[in-house]
């Protein structure tokens, strides 16, 4: 399907995660070890936050394979950010075009997704009609991922992200039931408002795609006091990934099945994910 990562912490160059690790996101675009497909070559995107006075995050999206995108390589080499999302796409049936590449943006919000809605072509019309009319013009592409984002916005993402995504998931499952489609939803989702990062791992069949979060930096420093990279980032630094970027023992913790987490200033949070039927 797809691979994605979210970074929050000490500002770093985008290439530090996109290109430099042994199992970087660009490496995963060619040699994914945990994805449904080994190759994720149907587009690439990165959204990042700059100075606080910028009204919205910057966005780069390309339709070619990530490993051959020279513009992305140049951008990543010179761009620094303390919060960014990056995504490599493997299409589940919708066209390879820029409007279908992640992350998706609305105002200060970014959204990326790995997974699919089973029977999406049958469900798409009913799902689209549930999008708030004021948000509907922002649906530019044809993916289930972008539609899920706009449904979450409709159900209150900007005010209560966990409740909104639970309502979105419950709504997709309710619509699928009316069409006789079992186990319709498969998702890992990363979303951010530029301050906090939320991650969700859920599937209707309770067998979700992989998702990991980096171990607390303070704990890793205690394990690896000679590691210079760990000395250069703050205790607040966290990375969420579809699959680990390296093999440092103890560095990656799996997000539990049917759960959500939020990376934020102070203590992070982890909770159980329960879809809610909005009706």
UniProtKB/TrEMBL annotation:
Origin species: Paractinoplanes toevensis
Positions of the Glutamine amidotransferase type-2 domain: 2-244
Protein's name in the database: Class II glutamine amidotransferase
Top-level taxon of the source organism: Bacteria
CDD domains to which the protein is assigned, alphabetical: YafJ
Keywords on record: Glutamine amidotransferase
Stored Pfam families: GATase_4
Matching SUPFAM superfamilies: N-terminal nucleophile aminohydrolases (Ntn hydrolases)
């Amino acid at each position: 399907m797809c691979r994605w990562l979210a970074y929050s912490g000490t500002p770093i160059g985008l290439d530090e995660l996109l290109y430099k690790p042994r199992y970087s996101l660009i490496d995963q675009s060619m040699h994914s070890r945990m994805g449904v497909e080994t190759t994720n070559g149907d587009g690439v995107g990165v959204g990042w936050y700059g100075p606080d006075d910028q009204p919205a995050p910057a966005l780069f999206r390309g339709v070619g394979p990530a490993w051959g995108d020279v513009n992305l390589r140049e951008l990543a080499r010179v761009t620094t950010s303390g919060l960014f999302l990056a995504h490599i796409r493997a299409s589940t049936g919708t066209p390879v075009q820029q409007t279908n590449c992640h992350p998706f943006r609305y105002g200060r919000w970014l959204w990326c997704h790995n997974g699919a809605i089973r029977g999406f072509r049958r469900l798409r019309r009913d799902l689209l009609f549930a999008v708030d009319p004021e948000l509907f013009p922002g649906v530019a592409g044809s993916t289930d991922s972008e539609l899920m984002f706009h449904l979450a916005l409709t159900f209150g993402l900007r005010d209560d992200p966990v409740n909104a995504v639970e309502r979105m998931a419950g709504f997709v499952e309710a619509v699928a039931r009316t069409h006789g489609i079992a186990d319709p939803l498969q998702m890992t989702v990363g979303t951010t408002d530029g301050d906090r990062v939320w991650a969700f791992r859920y599937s209707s069949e309770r067998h979700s795609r992989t998702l990991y979060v980096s171990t607390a930096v303070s704990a890793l420093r205690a394990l690896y006091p000679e590691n210079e990279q760990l000395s250069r980032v703050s205790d607040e630094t966290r990375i969420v990934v579809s699959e680990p970027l390296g093999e440092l023992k103890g560095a990656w913790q799996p997000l539990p099945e049917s759960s959500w987490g939020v990376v934020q200033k102070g203590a992070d949070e982890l909770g159980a994910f329960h879809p809610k039927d909005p009706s």
